[in-house]
Amino acid sequence: MRHCWPALLGSLCIVLSGCSAFTPTALPKAPSQPPVSEKWQAPLAHGGSVTALSSWWERVGDDTLPALITLAQEASPTLSAAATRVEEARLQQVVGLAALGPSLDASAAANRGNTQYPLPLSRTTSGAIAASWEADLFGAQKLAVKAAEARAASAQAQWHDARVVVAAETAVRYLSLRYCEAVRTEIEQDLSSADTLGKLARLGSDAGLLANSLADQARAQQAAVRASLLGQQSACDLEVKALVALTALPEPELRTRLAREAGRPLDVPPALAIQKLPAQVVAQRPDVYAAERDIIAAASEVGETQALRLPRLSIGGSIGVFSVRGGPLAADLNTWSIGPLRLQVPLYDGGIRQAQVKAAEARFDSAVRVYEARVRQAVREVEEALVQSHFNAERLAQVRSARQALERSLNAAERRTVAGLASRQALEEARRQLIAVRINELALIREGLIAGVSLYRAAGGGWDTP
């Protein structure tokens, strides 16, 4: 009989495993994706063709930005915390899967002593292996595993969403710095023209050809341009400080990297292409995918709490050896047991389990509302980014047309000045008008780049759901 207990225990496990496949608990139905328009209301970049958004950064025109984004993602505490949550969720999966199988515990003990004189010293040793298993009669443990899997997938998507946010923030700071430096160059040229006009005004005033008030106005313009240049330099330094905080690079090393791209023209890269249909873009957003996984997890938790209100069945068993040695006494014993076979039937708990079910249902309803809001927000963000990109391109075309006209006017003024048909003052005034339009053009280029970053962020950063 002593060798029959494994067969008995195995038979009982098979019976209980068959019972555990029965899952009468009804899960709440997860909603389908909220209805969204089959086409964007805003004009589509590149007609809506498909491209990999993750490679968009390489289209900006230099190698510094992708490298800074990588450094910022490595240094981000937000990304690190998201990675920690991913690991914790995966460990919860391991815990849930382990609960589906039996647990085994081994124990051993040894003792040497004398129980009563004049009996000789005795030595006893023992060892045992104990097993226990709870049959998943109504699927509570399977539902817990399903919830843990959904939470892990949600945490993974949230990690990617944090990665996209860090990339977008770094890009905005870097592009703002490039814009700031380009504007500073234009202001330096404007200051040169203002200094020339101031010198001409002083010469005219000293010669009695101009009123002193005109010379004072020229000096005031010089001071205003110098103040603008100082303000621009301060803004550029602040952008560098922001990049230092994001990338964790020492400032001297960061400035060395930035100097490699100094003087490169700031220009809008090719338009960012996205999917044609809103549903496709919405589906690839990490935050929307995470919200979907949260609904699955919440639904599973509702079923789990409902199953905990039903009977529970568990079984235990053990096998052990016992040895005693003392003088003429020597004995070896083997022991085994099956049981106890324990059935727990909830009768009364003061409404605790019912309250747990209601709380789980409330969390499910909340997850559904969050998901629907995420979808609406995703569509809104893409629409807004498309509107910004479209109208920015229209405005930029107009400003470039004006800049080209002023360039032709400046060339004509230079020729007239050389021929003695126009004054140097008129030439510098025309130059300053052109510089003002160039600064406006740079501002629109920056807005176009930021709109591209916003579209990258709104479209999910090129991430596809598994």
Uncertain segments of ≥5 residues (pLDDT<50)?
Answer: 4-9, 11-24
Strand order across the largest sheet:
1-2-3-4
What's the Cα radius of gyration?
A: 38 Å
CATH class: Mainly Alpha
> How many strands appear in the DSSP assignment?
4
Number of helices: 10
> What is the 3D form?
elongated
As a percent range, the share of helical residues equals 55-70%
Mean model confidence by pLDDT: 79
CATH-derived architecture: Up-down Bundle
Number of domains: 1
Residue fraction in strands: 5-15%
Instruction: Supply the CATH superfamily name.
Output: Outer membrane efflux proteins (OEP)
Class computed from helices, strands and strand pairing: alpha+beta
Compressed to H and E, one letter per element, the order equals: HHHEEHHHHHEEHH
Oligomer: single chain
Main sheet characteristics: 4 strands, antiparallel
Key attributes of the depicted protein:
single chain; alpha+beta; 4-stranded antiparallel beta sheet; 12% strand
Note down, in words, how this protein is organized.
The chain is of the alpha+beta class. The protein has a single domain, classed as Up-down Bundle (Outer membrane efflux proteins (OEP)). 63% of the residues lie in helices and 12% in strands. It has ten helices and four strands, in the order H-H-H-E-E-H-H-H-H-H-E-E-H-H. The chain has a four-stranded antiparallel beta sheet with strand order 1-2-3-4. Helix 3 packs antiparallel against helix 4, helix 4 (140-206) packs antiparallel against helix 5 and helix 8 packs antiparallel against helix 9. It is elongated, with a radius of gyration of 38 Å.
